[in-house]
Amino acid sequence: MKTPQFLRRLLSLPAYMDKNSDAYAVAERYLRLLYPGVLAQDELDAALEESISEVESEYEEAGRQIDVEDYVELEETIDVRVLMPLGATIGL
Asked: How many Cα atoms sit within 13 Å of 19 on the Cβ side?
């Protein structure tokens, strides 16, 4: 899907860099509507990284070492079928 021109203009505004601005709020709302999976994945990745750093810091404060990668499986394959415009389906 091509990003609509009004949304591209919003994303290019200097005000978009300020998370407290109206331009940022409007652009994020439309991004979530148009690309829900992409933004959700970004939020999940950020939350996961934050959780990993919290656990590592807790263990360091207690004087212990932990390798979170031994306990967290970050990759999972999910089969997806996509309906193409002409009615064919493809597997990804």
From this structure: 0
